[in-house]
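--- STAGE predict ---
source: upstream dedup step, 1 unique chain passed
mode: sequence only
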Amino acid sequence: MLRLPYFRYLAPRTVAEAADLLVAFEDAMLVGGGTDLLPNMKRRQQVPSTLIGLREVAELKGIRDGGGVTIAAGTTLTEIVRHPLIRASCTALWQAAAQVATPHLRNMGTLGGNLCLDTRCNYYDQNYEWRKAIDFCMKKDGQTCWVATSSPRCLAVSSTDTAPALMALGAEVTLVGANGARQLPLTRLYRNDGIHYLTRDPKEILTSVYVPTPLGVRSTYWKLRRRGSFVFPVLSAAAAARLSRDGTVEAAKIIVGAVASRPLDMGEAAESLIGYPLTDEAIARASELAWKPARPMDNTDFTLIWRKRVTREFVTYALQELRGDDMRVSRLRWERAELPG
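--- STAGE serialize ---
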């Protein structure tokens, strides 16, 4: 049995108090639902001496509508899935949240926690004894990235479901620290580095996510996984587009996840759609442009060659769904589960 290490637990009631505690305790970490951090602590991947719990902070809960949707970072994934506003105006986010893990974990896991999810790797997500036997890895206690031993940086992969969906929707996040608050596009929260994968300062708290909801925007999220529940994505594709009345694409975003240490914005692929209707030819062109930059590594489930090939197909499915095609059979085939009704 894996046991948690000893730690101090603090439960602030406000964001300001939590920010002050982060500064006061040097190696403190934030914990919301704990569905990622606590297993990591059991495997000794992360060993903070102090945990600052955010569950009692009322400011970090709730969904508000007003010129767009604002979602507090402590809102659970279950609350997001059950909210009619999210399903109606942020379809990609609703689909992504509905496919995270299991109902039990969605009841605990928060939006902020999923956005800040630790990167994953077959050589890293093992118990302490296993990692010690291979002389550890670059991400924790070692010097070598066992995915590519000559790599100067860690290649652990981003496995968040909600980030690609929210990036496609043009979301912004608010970060609060002891020196005040700042906003930035969600795309700028991530960097392509398996260790330093967030641009968020460790002493900052992600407090909320703002999603603009302009009229005419459709969005969707697709997830590749071995089983129909519990597992992390080994490939994901999120897409959003604003269509004119005649079906011409006026604006578009395509984001591919789980193929790098950050979700990848396939700007060239999205740009190729603008000014054209979503015909089979336009979709094929965009899918090819999205396939080329995707370079999955051999550090998660399935073979990397196959995962790269499927990138083209998943972007195709996402764009076909934006067009209005009935994709329920394909979803059941690939995602191995039906989305909640």
